[in-house]
Amino acid sequence: MTRLRAVMDRARQTGRKFLVIYLTEGDPSPEQTPAIVSAAADAGADVIELGVPFSDPNADGVVIQEAMQRALVAGGGLHSALDSVAHLRSSGCEVPIVLFGYYNPLFVYGTEAFADAAKGAGVDAVLTVDLPLDELEELHGPLSKRGLDVVPLIAPTSGSERIARVEEFAPPFVYYISMTGITGAAFRGASGGRDRVAEIRSLSGAPVAVGFGIKTADDARSVAEYADGVVVGSAVIRRIASAGAGQAARAVAEFVAELRAGIDS
What is the pLDDT of residues 118-160, one digit of tens each? Predict the structure, then answer.
């Protein structure tokens, strides 16, 4: 059983809601990324989504776009992200890591070569925001041959037939985008709420993590009442930007601890 599936299995058995934290690799620098990931994990993050910096992050809002630009200037990117994961694994960090980003860098790398590199680095799964379910097999195939997973995205506009197709990928969890739009929007509650999450869980056969717009421990608590997991991204990146390079890991740890306490309550 992979690290990620082991976390999902424990969550199912204990009823504990899992917390997914998004971090942009290379923000504020590639050298600091492993320490920030470790700090988030130690503070209560169950899964890390490690964003791969990309020059055209059109599905993301200003906060993550700016983080990706900072990361690219600092030397972040796909190769750097793989190096960061390898460094974390060599230092004993076992938090599950989902490599999160856009398909173009993976396509340019070559899906087979990328799958080899991801496996070698210690990545657990991959989530691509711009690769639709109809085309996801071209990434899922190479990854699954090496024991790695894909994490599908489901939107409020996704129909039942589309959601049911997720089951063929047997994902460790499904990421439900709670609102239409770009990341960093104001949280208005998950579209469809409890009933929608229950439908996705039933049709996909997988746990459901809800994200987009969750900024506070209270937001996280309200989502955890019906979702299997909670995803927080832009709010974490804001803490990093406000803290400055020297205090980024500490700021992330403090915020993750707040979110964990909110979910657990």
Answer: 999 999 999 999 999 999 999 999 999 999 999 999 999 999 9
Our count of domains for the chain comes to 1
Which two tokens mark 168? 């063929």
171 cis-preceded (ω within 30 degrees of 0): no
For 71, the domain range is 3-264
- Confidence band for 189, pLDDT divided at 50, 70 and 90: low
Q: For residue 50, how many C-alpha atoms fall within 13 Å in the half-sphere facing its CB?
A: 34
- State the CATH number of the domain containing residue 174: 3.20.20.70
Q: Where are the alpha helices (DSSP H) in the chain?
A: 3-14, 33-43, 62-74, 78-90, 103-109, 111-121, 137-144, 160-165, 193-204, 217-224, 234-243, 248-264
Structural contact between residues 154 and 200, judged by C-beta atoms closer than 8 angstroms: yes
Helix, strand, coil shares of the chain as percentages rounded to 5?
Answer: 50, 15, 35
Q: How many Å apart are CA 11 and CA 138, to the nearest integer?
A: 30
- Indicate which residues carry an active-site annotation: 49, 60
pTM assigned to the model: 0.94
